[in-house]
Amino acid sequence: MMVVASQAGRHLGVHGVRRDGVDTVVLSGELDIASYPRLEATTRQLEARGARAITLDLRELKFMDLAGVRAILEVHERSEEHGCVLQLIPGPWQIQSLFERTGLLKILPFQQATDG
Fold first, then answer.
1. What CA dihedral angle connects 37, 38, 41 and 45, to 10 degrees?
2. Considering the entire predicted model, what is its pTM?
3. Is residue 86 within a helix (H) or strand (E), and if so which, with residue range?
4. Inter-residue long-range contacts of 12-19, CB under 8 Å, 24+ positions, other chains counted
5. Three-class secondary structure of residue 12 per DSSP
6. Nearest by Cα to 15 from 38, 34, 44
7. Which of the listed CATH numbers 3.30.750.24, 3.40.640.10, 3.40.50.10940, 3.30.830.10 matches domain 1-47+60-85+103-108?
8. Left if phi > 0, otherwise alpha if psi is -120 to 50, otherwise beta: which for 94?
9. In the chain, where are the structural domains located?
10. What is the pLDDT at residue 85?
11. Which neighbouring-strand residues pair with 18?
12. In the chain, N or C terminus with fewer CB closer than 10 Å?
């Protein structure tokens, strides 16, 4: 396991790990209009390095507004343009409810929940 990016800010923590050729970006805290540039910068950096698969782990997010949803949509669109496989690990109910209310649960590539 290798850390490829790590940033902590006032609102959003971004921690990247590469394992078995997949870059996982763990988001923690708040993804909103003030913090989404961190997500964009991290994913663009991974794409520039030639990432073929990126997973966004939303489990540690505490808050996300519509700007955060838009940021994830932009990552999704860019990944398709670059031929990169994107997966999303679902977040807590308050995060997932935004995707549900906007109809994006069926559009974005969320991993299926597994029974623990």
1. -170
2. 0.85
3. strand 85-89
4. 12/36, 12/38, 12/39, 13/60, 14/38, 14/39, 14/42, 16/42, 16/46
5. strand
6. 38
7. 3.30.750.24
8. alpha
9. 1-47+60-85+103-108
10. 93
11. 2, 23
12. C
Per run of 10 residues, the mean pLDDT along the chain (length 116 residues) is 41 87 93 92 91 95 94 94 93 95 93 61
Torsional sign, CA 27, 48, 104, 69:
positive
Which structure tokens are listed for 94? 């308050």
Sheet holding 53-64, edge to edge: 2-8, 12-19, 22-31, 53-64, 85-89
Both tokens of residue 34? 């003030």
The gap between the terminal CA atoms of the chain, to the nearest Å, is 23
